[in-house]
Design brief:
- It contains seven helices and four strands; from the N terminus they run E-H-E-H-E-E-H-H-H-H-H.
- The protein has 210 residues and is an alpha+beta fold.
- A four-stranded mixed sheet has the order 2-1-3-4.
- The structure holds glutathione.
- The site of glutathione has 12 residues, from helix 1.
């Protein structure tokens, strides 16, 4: 199996985080440089269908290119620790929070960063108003997470799941433009600290020089 990856980008980071939580270390990682357009070559697009990372290429040639679909595949192959749910009820609640994390927080934050960070101008026809609108929408949605996290240690229940990974990685992408959760959202801040403290938070991220 090969994972096509790039450092710093949030969608590949979800997969690397997921693999680290599970201790998966037998997947070959192929690093692409997006700024050099290595994800836009005809051979890559033929496999991936879209000029996007991450992509997981299986040994039988099957290519999977949505980060949550990749994680779901890996969950089937490496079931423990369980991150997608064991019972029908748990699985549905995790899916519900994963969808909310994606639509309400991760997508607006990613669009916000893409439209406002100077470096992203190489990948996006930037519109700062679109960026600001999305950043505000993402930050506003954190209140939904804050209410949930007042009653629950993790987003989807009593343990970390794919929902936490999707929400946190999206939120943490905001650090590139110095956007962090407002301090008054105490539950989000407490949860974000717990996420940052997990060893998997560093997976695939550029390491600071000692
Ligand atoms: N829905 C996809 C999104 C993939 C995606 O947008 N990846 C970004 C990196 S985070 C990308 O490849 N961007 C390339 C570009 O904008 O040219 C997923 O969850 O994997």
């Amino acid at each position: 199996m090969k994972l096509y990856d790039t450092p710093l980008a949030p969608n590949p980071r979800r997969v690397r985080w997921f693999m680290a939580e599970k201790g998966i270390d037998d997947v070959e990682v192929v690093t692409l440089n997006l700024m050099e357009g290595q994800h836009k070559t005809p051979s890559y697009i033929r496999k991936a269908g879209l000029p996007n990372v991450p992509m997981l290429e299986l040994d039988d040639g099957t290519c999977i290119t949505e980060s949550v679909a990749i994680c779901r595949y890996l969950e089937s192959r490496y079931p423990e620790p369980n991150l997608f749910g064991r019972t029908p009820e748990e699985t549905a609640v995790i899916e519900m929070w994963t969808r909310r994390a994606e639509m309400l927080v991760a997508t607006p934050m990613m669009i916000g960063v893409r439209h406002t960070h100077p470096m992203m101008g190489r990948l996006e026809q930037q519109n700062p108003e679109v960026g600001q609108y999305n950043l505000q929408a993402g930050l506003k949605a954190l209140k939904v997470l804050d209410r949930r996290l007042a009653d629950s240690e993790w987003l989807a229940g009593d343990r970390l799941t794919i929902a936490d990974i999707v929400a946190f990685v999206g939120l943490d992408f905001g650090r590139l433009i110095k956007v962090t959760p407002p301090q008054e959202l105490e539950n989000v801040c407490r949860w974000a600290e717990a996420m940052k403290a997990r060893p998997a938070a560093a997976a695939g991220m550029p390491q600071k020089a000692a």
